[in-house]
Amino acid sequence: MEARARLVVVGNGMAGARLVEDLLAAAPGRFAITVIGAEAGGSYNRILLSAVLAGDRERHDIVTHDAAWYAARGVLLRSAETATAIDRTEGLVRTDRDAAVPYDLLVLATGSTPVMLPIPGADLAGVVAFRDLADVERMIAAAAAGTRAIVICGGLLGLEAADGLRRRGMAVTVVHLMPWIMERQLDRRAADMLKASLIRRGIRFVMPAETAAILGRGRATGIRLGDGRTLPADLVVMGVGIRANTALALAAGLDCRKGVVVDDRLQTSDPRIYALGECIEHQGRVYGLVGPIWEQSRILAKHLAGVRDAAYRGSIATASLKIAGIDTYSLGDLDATDGAEEILLDDAARGVYRKLVLSAGRLQGAVLYGDISDAGWYAELVRQNRPIEAWRHDLIFGRQLAERGGRGGGDERPAAALPMAAAVP
Protein backbone atom coordinates (compact mmCIF):
# COMPACT_ATOMS: atom_id res chain seq x y z
CA MET A 1 0.00 0.00 0.00
CA GLU A 2 1.40 3.35 -1.06
CA ALA A 3 2.23 5.70 1.82
CA ARG A 4 0.03 8.74 2.12
CA ALA A 5 1.55 12.15 1.52
CA ARG A 6 2.35 13.96 4.75
CA LEU A 7 0.40 17.23 4.97
CA VAL A 8 1.17 19.57 7.86
CA VAL A 9 -1.10 22.51 8.69
CA VAL A 10 0.43 25.21 10.88
CA GLY A 11 -2.41 26.96 12.65
CA ASN A 12 -5.52 25.55 14.27
CA GLY A 13 -7.72 28.60 13.97
CA MET A 14 -10.76 28.95 11.75
CA ALA A 15 -8.73 28.73 8.53
CA GLY A 16 -6.68 25.67 9.46
CA ALA A 17 -9.62 23.73 10.90
CA ARG A 18 -11.88 24.56 7.96
CA LEU A 19 -9.22 23.42 5.50
CA VAL A 20 -8.87 20.05 7.27
CA GLU A 21 -12.64 19.65 7.17
CA ASP A 22 -12.85 20.53 3.47
CA LEU A 23 -9.86 18.36 2.58
CA LEU A 24 -11.25 15.31 4.37
CA ALA A 25 -14.41 15.71 2.30
CA ALA A 26 -12.63 16.41 -1.00
CA ALA A 27 -9.89 13.76 -0.73
CA PRO A 28 -10.64 11.25 2.04
CA GLY A 29 -7.62 9.12 2.89
CA ARG A 30 -5.26 10.95 0.54
CA PHE A 31 -3.13 12.65 3.19
CA ALA A 32 -1.67 11.87 6.59
CA ILE A 33 -2.58 15.18 8.24
CA THR A 34 -0.89 16.84 11.21
CA VAL A 35 -2.17 20.11 12.66
CA ILE A 36 0.07 22.29 14.83
CA GLY A 37 -1.84 24.80 16.97
CA ALA A 38 -0.37 27.29 19.44
CA GLU A 39 -3.53 27.55 21.54
CA ALA A 40 -4.53 24.76 23.89
CA GLY A 41 -7.53 22.62 22.97
CA GLY A 42 -9.34 22.48 19.67
CA SER A 43 -10.43 25.10 17.19
CA TYR A 44 -13.16 27.61 18.03
CA ASN A 45 -15.34 30.13 16.28
CA ARG A 46 -13.50 33.41 16.74
CA ILE A 47 -16.52 35.32 15.43
CA LEU A 48 -18.37 34.42 18.62
CA LEU A 49 -15.75 35.84 21.00
CA SER A 50 -17.92 38.94 21.41
CA ALA A 51 -20.82 36.68 22.49
CA VAL A 52 -18.60 35.05 25.14
CA LEU A 53 -17.48 38.47 26.34
CA ALA A 54 -21.08 39.67 26.57
CA GLY A 55 -22.10 36.55 28.51
CA ASP A 56 -24.38 35.13 25.80
CA ARG A 57 -22.13 32.09 25.22
CA GLU A 58 -19.71 30.05 27.29
CA ARG A 59 -16.25 29.04 26.14
CA HIS A 60 -17.31 25.47 25.35
CA ASP A 61 -20.20 26.75 23.23
CA ILE A 62 -17.91 28.14 20.54
CA VAL A 63 -15.58 25.14 20.11
CA THR A 64 -16.05 23.77 16.59
CA HIS A 65 -13.37 21.05 16.35
CA ASP A 66 -12.24 19.54 19.63
CA ALA A 67 -9.47 16.97 20.14
CA ALA A 68 -11.96 14.12 19.79
CA TRP A 69 -13.07 15.43 16.38
CA TYR A 70 -9.51 15.23 15.06
CA ALA A 71 -8.84 11.84 16.64
CA ALA A 72 -11.99 10.34 15.16
CA ARG A 73 -10.81 11.33 11.69
CA GLY A 74 -7.23 10.14 12.03
CA VAL A 75 -5.77 13.67 12.16
CA LEU A 76 -2.86 14.24 14.55
CA LEU A 77 -3.44 17.42 16.56
CA ARG A 78 -0.43 18.95 18.27
CA SER A 79 -2.15 21.60 20.41
CA ALA A 80 -0.47 24.11 22.73
CA GLU A 81 2.59 23.77 20.49
CA THR A 82 4.10 26.59 18.46
CA ALA A 83 5.86 26.21 15.11
CA THR A 84 9.14 28.09 15.43
CA ALA A 85 10.92 27.41 12.12
CA ILE A 86 10.55 25.79 8.72
CA ASP A 87 13.43 23.81 7.26
CA ARG A 88 12.51 23.91 3.58
CA THR A 89 15.50 21.82 2.52
CA GLU A 90 14.70 18.91 4.82
CA GLY A 91 10.94 19.41 4.74
CA LEU A 92 10.57 19.88 8.50
CA VAL A 93 8.57 22.14 10.81
CA ARG A 94 10.37 22.71 14.11
CA THR A 95 8.40 23.54 17.24
CA ASP A 96 8.91 24.93 20.72
CA ARG A 97 8.78 21.37 22.07
CA ASP A 98 12.00 20.50 20.20
CA ALA A 99 9.99 18.46 17.70
CA ALA A 100 10.79 18.20 14.01
CA VAL A 101 7.58 17.43 12.10
CA PRO A 102 8.21 16.16 8.55
CA TYR A 103 6.07 17.25 5.63
CA ASP A 104 5.64 16.60 1.94
CA LEU A 105 3.22 19.52 1.68
CA LEU A 106 2.85 22.36 4.16
CA VAL A 107 -0.03 24.79 4.67
CA LEU A 108 0.42 27.99 6.64
CA ALA A 109 -2.72 29.18 8.42
CA THR A 110 -0.94 31.38 10.93
CA GLY A 111 -3.65 34.03 11.00
CA SER A 112 -2.97 37.50 12.30
CA THR A 113 -1.70 39.36 15.32
CA PRO A 114 -3.40 42.32 17.01
CA VAL A 115 -2.00 45.77 16.38
CA MET A 116 -0.85 47.38 19.62
CA LEU A 117 -0.20 51.10 19.47
CA PRO A 118 3.50 51.89 20.04
CA ILE A 119 2.81 54.39 22.84
CA PRO A 120 4.10 54.73 26.40
CA GLY A 121 2.33 52.38 28.79
CA ALA A 122 1.19 49.87 26.16
CA ASP A 123 2.94 47.08 28.10
CA LEU A 124 1.22 47.79 31.43
CA ALA A 125 -0.99 45.23 33.10
CA GLY A 126 -4.63 45.95 32.37
CA VAL A 127 -3.94 46.68 28.70
CA VAL A 128 -5.33 43.94 26.47
CA ALA A 129 -6.10 43.21 22.84
CA PHE A 130 -9.33 41.57 21.70
CA ARG A 131 -8.18 38.65 19.60
CA ASP A 132 -8.51 35.27 21.30
CA LEU A 133 -10.14 33.43 24.20
CA ALA A 134 -7.29 34.33 26.55
CA ASP A 135 -7.94 38.02 25.84
CA VAL A 136 -11.65 37.54 26.54
CA GLU A 137 -10.93 35.80 29.83
CA ARG A 138 -8.68 38.69 30.89
CA MET A 139 -11.40 41.18 29.99
CA ILE A 140 -14.06 39.26 31.91
CA ALA A 141 -11.80 39.15 34.97
CA ALA A 142 -11.16 42.89 34.69
CA ALA A 143 -14.89 43.57 34.41
CA ALA A 144 -15.45 41.68 37.66
CA ALA A 145 -12.76 43.67 39.47
CA GLY A 146 -13.11 47.16 37.95
CA THR A 147 -15.74 49.61 36.84
CA ARG A 148 -14.28 51.73 34.00
CA ALA A 149 -13.06 50.60 30.60
CA ILE A 150 -11.59 52.51 27.69
CA VAL A 151 -11.67 50.94 24.24
CA ILE A 152 -9.22 52.44 21.78
CA CYS A 153 -10.64 52.43 18.24
CA GLY A 154 -14.25 52.44 17.09
CA GLY A 155 -13.89 49.77 14.43
CA LEU A 156 -15.64 46.40 14.34
CA LEU A 157 -13.57 44.79 17.07
CA GLY A 158 -13.56 47.85 19.28
CA LEU A 159 -17.32 48.34 19.21
CA GLU A 160 -18.01 44.67 19.90
CA ALA A 161 -15.61 44.79 22.84
CA ALA A 162 -17.23 47.98 24.12
CA ASP A 163 -20.74 46.52 24.06
CA GLY A 164 -19.59 43.27 25.69
CA LEU A 165 -17.87 45.12 28.53
CA ARG A 166 -20.93 47.36 28.96
CA ARG A 167 -23.07 44.26 29.35
CA ARG A 168 -20.59 43.03 31.96
CA GLY A 169 -21.42 46.15 33.98
CA MET A 170 -18.52 48.43 33.09
CA ALA A 171 -18.76 52.11 32.21
CA VAL A 172 -17.25 52.15 28.73
CA THR A 173 -15.68 54.96 26.73
CA VAL A 174 -14.64 54.49 23.10
CA VAL A 175 -11.75 56.70 21.97
CA HIS A 176 -11.55 56.90 18.19
CA LEU A 177 -9.06 58.70 15.99
CA MET A 178 -11.38 59.35 13.04
CA PRO A 179 -14.44 61.64 12.68
CA TRP A 180 -16.85 58.68 12.57
CA ILE A 181 -16.86 55.08 13.73
CA MET A 182 -16.30 52.11 11.42
CA GLU A 183 -15.07 54.50 8.75
CA ARG A 184 -13.73 51.62 6.64
CA GLN A 185 -17.12 49.94 6.39
CA LEU A 186 -19.74 52.69 6.85
CA ASP A 187 -20.44 56.14 5.48
CA ARG A 188 -21.00 59.08 7.81
CA ARG A 189 -24.80 58.76 7.95
CA ALA A 190 -24.85 55.05 8.86
CA ALA A 191 -22.03 55.59 11.35
CA ASP A 192 -23.90 58.42 13.06
CA MET A 193 -27.02 56.26 13.38
CA LEU A 194 -24.96 53.44 14.86
CA LYS A 195 -23.21 55.79 17.27
CA ALA A 196 -26.53 57.24 18.45
CA SER A 197 -27.82 53.73 19.15
CA LEU A 198 -24.70 52.84 21.15
CA ILE A 199 -24.91 56.08 23.13
CA ARG A 200 -28.49 55.20 24.07
CA ARG A 201 -27.11 51.94 25.44
CA GLY A 202 -24.74 53.87 27.66
CA ILE A 203 -21.45 53.84 25.73
CA ARG A 204 -19.57 57.14 25.70
CA PHE A 205 -17.53 58.36 22.74
CA VAL A 206 -14.53 60.68 22.62
CA MET A 207 -13.70 61.45 18.99
CA PRO A 208 -11.87 62.41 16.96
CA ALA A 209 -9.13 61.92 19.50
CA GLU A 210 -5.60 60.53 19.47
CA THR A 211 -4.37 58.30 22.29
CA ALA A 212 -0.90 59.56 23.23
CA ALA A 213 -0.08 57.39 26.26
CA ILE A 214 -1.48 54.90 28.73
CA LEU A 215 -1.10 56.05 32.32
CA GLY A 216 -0.19 54.04 35.39
CA ARG A 217 2.64 52.42 37.33
CA GLY A 218 2.62 48.68 36.99
CA ARG A 219 -1.03 48.73 35.99
CA ALA A 220 -3.08 50.95 33.67
CA THR A 221 -5.10 53.68 35.40
CA GLY A 222 -6.16 55.69 32.35
CA ILE A 223 -5.00 57.29 29.13
CA ARG A 224 -3.71 60.65 28.00
CA LEU A 225 -5.02 62.10 24.77
CA GLY A 226 -3.04 64.05 22.24
CA ASP A 227 -4.61 67.34 23.41
CA GLY A 228 -3.53 66.70 27.01
CA ARG A 229 -6.83 65.50 28.43
CA THR A 230 -6.77 62.40 30.63
CA LEU A 231 -9.44 59.73 31.01
CA PRO A 232 -9.47 57.27 33.95
CA ALA A 233 -9.77 53.52 33.38
CA ASP A 234 -9.36 50.18 35.14
CA LEU A 235 -9.05 48.38 31.79
CA VAL A 236 -7.75 49.55 28.41
CA VAL A 237 -8.66 47.51 25.33
CA MET A 238 -6.87 48.04 22.05
CA GLY A 239 -9.17 47.19 19.16
CA VAL A 240 -6.97 48.95 16.64
CA GLY A 241 -6.88 46.14 14.10
CA ILE A 242 -4.89 43.14 12.99
CA ARG A 243 -1.74 42.45 11.00
CA ALA A 244 -0.98 39.32 8.98
CA ASN A 245 1.24 36.96 10.97
CA THR A 246 4.10 36.42 8.54
CA ALA A 247 6.94 35.84 11.02
CA LEU A 248 7.31 32.12 10.34
CA ALA A 249 7.11 32.57 6.58
CA LEU A 250 9.57 35.47 6.55
CA ALA A 251 12.12 33.52 8.59
CA ALA A 252 11.80 30.67 6.09
CA GLY A 253 12.56 33.00 3.18
CA LEU A 254 9.11 32.98 1.60
CA ASP A 255 7.92 35.96 -0.41
CA CYS A 256 5.99 38.26 1.97
CA ARG A 257 4.65 41.78 1.66
CA LYS A 258 1.51 42.77 3.58
CA GLY A 259 1.01 39.02 3.99
CA VAL A 260 2.46 35.75 2.72
CA VAL A 261 2.20 36.16 -1.04
CA VAL A 262 0.14 33.45 -2.76
CA ASP A 263 -1.08 32.83 -6.29
CA ASP A 264 -4.52 31.73 -7.47
CA ARG A 265 -3.81 28.20 -6.19
CA LEU A 266 -2.97 29.63 -2.73
CA GLN A 267 0.62 28.51 -3.39
CA THR A 268 3.53 30.49 -1.93
CA SER A 269 6.90 31.12 -3.53
CA ASP A 270 7.83 27.57 -2.45
CA PRO A 271 5.83 25.03 -4.52
CA ARG A 272 5.54 22.68 -1.53
CA ILE A 273 4.06 25.36 0.75
CA TYR A 274 0.56 26.83 0.60
CA ALA A 275 -1.16 29.41 2.77
CA LEU A 276 -4.65 30.73 3.44
CA GLY A 277 -6.60 32.98 5.75
CA GLU A 278 -5.62 36.22 7.43
CA CYS A 279 -1.89 35.60 6.94
CA ILE A 280 -1.96 35.80 3.13
CA GLU A 281 -1.75 38.47 0.48
CA HIS A 282 -3.47 37.63 -2.80
CA GLN A 283 -3.30 40.01 -5.76
CA GLY A 284 -2.24 42.80 -3.42
CA ARG A 285 -5.09 42.29 -0.96
CA VAL A 286 -5.28 40.90 2.57
CA TYR A 287 -8.50 39.73 4.18
CA GLY A 288 -9.50 39.87 7.83
CA LEU A 289 -12.99 38.41 7.53
CA VAL A 290 -14.38 34.90 7.61
CA GLY A 291 -16.09 34.85 4.19
CA PRO A 292 -12.83 34.92 2.22
CA ILE A 293 -11.39 32.20 4.48
CA TRP A 294 -14.21 29.82 3.55
CA GLU A 295 -13.69 30.54 -0.16
CA GLN A 296 -9.93 30.04 0.11
CA SER A 297 -10.34 26.80 2.04
CA ARG A 298 -12.73 25.36 -0.53
CA ILE A 299 -10.40 26.23 -3.42
CA LEU A 300 -7.25 24.98 -1.71
CA ALA A 301 -8.90 21.71 -0.72
CA LYS A 302 -9.94 21.15 -4.33
CA HIS A 303 -6.44 21.93 -5.57
CA LEU A 304 -4.79 19.59 -3.06
CA ALA A 305 -7.35 16.94 -4.02
CA GLY A 306 -6.14 17.13 -7.62
CA VAL A 307 -8.58 19.57 -9.22
CA ARG A 308 -5.90 21.52 -11.06
CA ASP A 309 -8.18 24.19 -12.51
CA ALA A 310 -9.45 25.22 -9.06
CA ALA A 311 -8.49 28.87 -8.66
CA TYR A 312 -9.07 31.60 -6.12
CA ARG A 313 -9.96 34.91 -7.76
CA GLY A 314 -10.32 37.07 -4.67
CA SER A 315 -13.30 37.87 -2.47
CA ILE A 316 -15.86 40.62 -2.01
CA ALA A 317 -15.29 42.29 1.35
CA THR A 318 -18.26 42.16 3.73
CA ALA A 319 -18.62 43.32 7.31
CA SER A 320 -21.36 42.80 9.89
CA LEU A 321 -21.34 44.15 13.44
CA LYS A 322 -22.10 41.42 15.98
CA ILE A 323 -24.01 43.35 18.63
CA ALA A 324 -27.42 42.06 19.67
CA GLY A 325 -30.25 44.32 18.52
CA ILE A 326 -28.16 46.33 16.07
CA ASP A 327 -28.19 45.38 12.39
CA THR A 328 -25.30 46.80 10.37
CA TYR A 329 -23.85 45.39 7.15
CA SER A 330 -21.57 46.60 4.39
CA LEU A 331 -20.09 44.97 1.32
CA GLY A 332 -18.05 45.68 -1.74
CA ASP A 333 -16.56 48.94 -2.96
CA LEU A 334 -18.17 52.05 -1.47
CA ASP A 335 -16.04 54.52 -3.42
CA ALA A 336 -18.49 56.46 -5.60
CA THR A 337 -15.92 57.92 -8.00
CA ASP A 338 -15.18 57.48 -11.71
CA GLY A 339 -18.79 57.79 -12.78
CA ALA A 340 -20.32 55.68 -10.02
CA GLU A 341 -23.58 56.84 -8.46
CA GLU A 342 -25.20 56.44 -5.08
CA ILE A 343 -28.82 55.57 -4.35
CA LEU A 344 -29.95 56.37 -0.81
CA LEU A 345 -32.89 55.39 1.37
CA ASP A 346 -33.04 57.23 4.69
CA ASP A 347 -35.96 56.55 7.02
CA ALA A 348 -35.04 58.17 10.33
CA ALA A 349 -38.41 57.33 11.91
CA ARG A 350 -37.85 53.60 11.42
CA GLY A 351 -34.10 53.77 11.97
CA VAL A 352 -33.43 52.34 8.50
CA TYR A 353 -30.74 53.51 6.11
CA ARG A 354 -29.46 52.06 2.85
CA LYS A 355 -26.85 53.21 0.39
CA LEU A 356 -26.17 51.41 -2.86
CA VAL A 357 -23.21 52.27 -5.09
CA LEU A 358 -23.73 51.53 -8.79
CA SER A 359 -21.22 51.58 -11.59
CA ALA A 360 -21.69 50.67 -15.26
CA GLY A 361 -25.13 49.23 -14.61
CA ARG A 362 -23.96 46.95 -11.81
CA LEU A 363 -23.98 47.03 -8.03
CA GLN A 364 -20.48 47.51 -6.64
CA GLY A 365 -21.17 48.14 -2.94
CA ALA A 366 -23.80 48.65 -0.26
CA VAL A 367 -24.26 49.93 3.28
CA LEU A 368 -27.28 48.75 5.28
CA TYR A 369 -28.35 49.89 8.73
CA GLY A 370 -31.44 48.89 10.70
CA ASP A 371 -32.72 46.37 8.14
CA ILE A 372 -30.25 43.92 6.62
CA SER A 373 -32.79 41.41 5.35
CA ASP A 374 -31.63 41.92 1.75
CA ALA A 375 -27.91 41.76 2.55
CA GLY A 376 -27.47 38.30 1.04
CA TRP A 377 -29.17 39.30 -2.20
CA TYR A 378 -27.09 42.45 -2.58
CA ALA A 379 -23.94 40.43 -1.90
CA GLU A 380 -24.98 37.94 -4.59
CA LEU A 381 -25.45 40.74 -7.12
CA VAL A 382 -21.99 42.13 -6.36
CA ARG A 383 -20.25 38.73 -6.47
CA GLN A 384 -21.90 37.73 -9.73
CA ASN A 385 -21.44 41.19 -11.25
CA ARG A 386 -25.00 40.94 -12.56
CA PRO A 387 -26.58 43.76 -14.61
CA ILE A 388 -29.25 45.51 -12.53
CA GLU A 389 -30.72 48.02 -14.99
CA ALA A 390 -34.04 46.12 -15.11
CA TRP A 391 -34.39 46.78 -11.38
CA ARG A 392 -32.72 50.17 -11.31
CA HIS A 393 -35.70 52.10 -9.91
CA ASP A 394 -36.64 49.50 -7.30
CA LEU A 395 -33.26 48.10 -6.25
CA ILE A 396 -33.04 50.20 -3.09
CA PHE A 397 -36.29 48.70 -1.78
CA GLY A 398 -34.98 45.15 -1.76
CA ARG A 399 -35.32 41.89 -3.63
CA GLN A 400 -39.06 41.31 -3.31
CA LEU A 401 -40.12 44.61 -4.82
CA ALA A 402 -37.26 44.81 -7.31
CA GLU A 403 -37.79 41.37 -8.84
CA ARG A 404 -41.55 41.73 -8.83
CA GLY A 405 -41.50 45.21 -10.32
CA GLY A 406 -38.70 44.90 -12.84
CA ARG A 407 -38.21 47.81 -15.19
CA GLY A 408 -40.95 50.32 -14.70
CA GLY A 409 -42.36 48.38 -11.75
CA GLY A 410 -42.12 51.32 -9.38
CA ASP A 411 -45.90 51.59 -9.01
CA GLU A 412 -45.84 48.62 -6.66
CA ARG A 413 -43.67 50.42 -4.13
CA PRO A 414 -45.41 51.63 -0.97
CA ALA A 415 -46.32 55.29 -1.39
CA ALA A 416 -44.74 56.14 1.93
CA ALA A 417 -41.41 54.79 0.72
CA LEU A 418 -41.15 56.91 -2.41
CA PRO A 419 -39.73 60.13 -0.86
CA MET A 420 -37.04 58.27 1.03
CA ALA A 421 -34.98 57.20 -1.95
CA ALA A 422 -32.82 59.55 -3.94
CA ALA A 423 -30.06 59.24 -6.50
CA VAL A 424 -26.91 61.13 -5.68
CA PRO A 425 -24.68 61.90 -8.67
Can you describe this structure?
By secondary structure, the protein is α/β, with parallel strands linked by helices. The protein contains 10 helices and 28 strands. It has helices spanning 14-26, 49-54, 67-72, 133-145, 156-167, 188-200, 247-251, 290-304, 375-384, 399-405, and strands spanning 5-10, 31-37, 43-44, 63-65, 76-79, 83-87, 92-95, 100-102, 105-108, 112-114, 127-129, 148-152, 171-175, 204-206, 211-215, 222-225, 230-232, 235-238, 242-244, 260-262, 273-275, 280-282, 318-320, 328-332, 341-347, 352-359, 362-369, 421-424. The strands form 8 sheets. It has a 6-stranded antiparallel beta sheet with strand order 23-24-27-26-25-28. The chain has a 5-stranded parallel beta sheet with strand order 5-2-1-9-21. A 5-stranded parallel beta sheet has the order 11-18-12-13-14, covered by helices on one side. It starts with a strand and ends with a strand. The relative contact order is 0.11.
Give me the Rg, rounded: 23 Å
Instruction: Report the sheet-strand fraction.
Output: 25-35%
Q: Which overall shape is indicated by the principal axes computed on the Cα atoms? A: globular
Ends apart, CA distance between termini = 67 Å
The major β-sheet equals: 6 strands, antiparallel
**Helical percent range?**
10-25%
- Mean of residue pLDDT values: 93
- Helix/strand-derived category reads alpha/beta
Helical region count? 10
- Widest sheet: strand ordering: 23-24-27-26-25-28
Note poorly predicted spans: 407-425
Number of strands: 28
